[in-house]
Amino acid sequence: MRIQNRPGYFFCCLLLLALSGCSATGGDIVKISSVPENASESGLKAADRARLEEIQKTSSENNGAGTGLSSVITDKARNLTIAEYLRQYPNASGAGAGEYTVGPHDVLSITVYDEQDFSSPALRVSVDGYISFPLIGRIKVNGLTTAQIEALITRRLGEGQILLNAHVAVRIAECNSKRYLVMGSVQSPGSYPLAENERVLDAISKANGITKGEKGASRKAKIVRTVHAGTAQEEQLVIDLDLQSMQQGTSRQANIFMQDKDTLFIPMPEKFYILGEVKRPGDYPLSESDITLIEGIGLAGGFTNIAARNSTRIIRTENGRQKIIRVRVDAITDSGRQLREIILQPNDIIIVPQSFF
Q1: pLDDT for residue 290
Q2: Model confidence pTM above 0.70
Q3: Domains of the chain (ranges, CATH numbers)
Q4: 3-state secondary structure 64-131
Q5: Which of 121, 126, 130, 125 is nearest to 173 (CA)?
Q6: Which residues contact 320 (CB under 8 A, 6 or more apart)?
Q7: Contact at 8 Å (CB) between 221 and 196?
Q8: Closest among 111, 195, 105, 96 to 149, alpha carbons compared
Q9: Strands (E), the chain
Q10: Nearest to 157 by CA among 149, 189, 52, 246
Q11: In DSSP terms, which residues pair with 325 in a beta bridge?
């Protein structure tokens, strides 16, 4: 009760909390702001300004803009990590998830054992989803699996007293009804027919593998997928994938089955850029482990003698918007400041301006 009668006590507590909050976020060691016009170019030489403009253009292309991916993704698309996707759609990687259902223009090979006259090595599915089978006539197979077609033909042969207890085998000779698109950093981008039990790594292999440049190969991928198509719940998802863990076998669940009309996008290898007063400006790959700002500057040979170290800034794009992260590097490297270090993200542009003093 005595505390309630001391309003100054609460004011002091709030003031202390505010001060401690400023300290926890680093105060003026790191400042984040939106990018005003020309602010990112200040302190750069003409050649560096031209290079900055070039990087900003190409980095957007590497992430999908300019490659056609931006025309595939709608404004209402929902981004999910692979873990989030599998939690919401647990059957996506389970048994039967990659089972193929027959559609128009597929070609079936049908064998009726011990009855060669009923067998057909190449029976094409019509546009409306039917096949014509000897003595039975037209059978609708659209949307059925090979096992379901086998059971259907066996039943129809028995019902017509044509052949009792027939042993029927159906396989897909040509997959033509379903396709997916592979875009980005692969050897042979394009549209490919979807086969039974085909996964992400199979699709990349069909596109002749990931393009490898001097900076290495991409470690990430995206799948643009429509779920509940044709219903009120129809939704477009953008699923983020970790290719490296898939290829190393440490995340087999992430190697999900491809689906009809999927778009698989492989971006260029992840890297960051550094311009201005460092000894080796350029672009550098992001390794398997996190790279901090200080480590990134070290990869570029460190500061030159005329670098404005405490005016270092990072241009970062998030959700289509650019922001500037201004960093007093000397304050980070001081004893006890390491926890304030910044982890670099793909396509970060580090700018070290020239000191005028």
Answers
A1: 79
A2: no
A3: 26-62+270-352 (3.10.560.10), 69-98+178-266 (3.10.560.10), 107-174 (3.30.1950.10)
A4: CCCCCHHHHCCCCCEEEEHHHHHHHCHHHHCCCCCCCCCCCCCEEEEEECCCHHHCEEEEECCCCCEE
A5: 121
A6: none
A7: no
A8: 111
A9: 30-34, 78-81, 107-112, 120-124, 130-133, 137-140, 168-174, 179-184, 190-193, 220-227, 235-242, 263-266, 271-276, 282-285, 312-318, 321-327, 349-352
A10: 149
A11: 32, 314
Q: Which of 98-112, 172-186, 193-207, 313-327 has the lowest mean pLDDT?
A: 313-327
On whether the CB atoms of residues 152 and 234 are closer than 8 A, the answer is: no
Q: Is the pLDDT of residue 26 over 50?
A: no
pLDDT tens digits for range 70-122: 778 888 899 999 999 999 998 877 767 888 999 999 999 999 998 888 899 99
Range ranked top by mean pLDDT from 22-26, 237-241, 335-339: 237-241
Q: For residue 215, name the pLDDT band (cuts at 50, 70, 90).
A: low
Task: Name the token pair of 76.
Answer: 């209402």
Mean pLDDT of all residues in the chain?
82
Q: CA 314, CA 349: separation in Å to the nearest integer?
A: 5
Mean pLDDT across 10-14: 41
Are residues 285 and 91 in contact, defined by beta-carbon separation less than 8 angstroms?
no
Question: What's the confidence (pLDDT) of residue 244?
Answer: 79
Q: What are the tokens at 350?
A: 């580090």
Nearest-10 Cα torsion for 107, 113, 117, 120? 10
Q: Name the helix (H) or strand (E) containing 145.
A: none
Cα–Cα distance measured from residue 329 to residue 310, given in angstroms and rounded to the nearest whole number: 5
At 166, list the tokens.
């027939």
pLDDT at 171 (0 to 100): 95
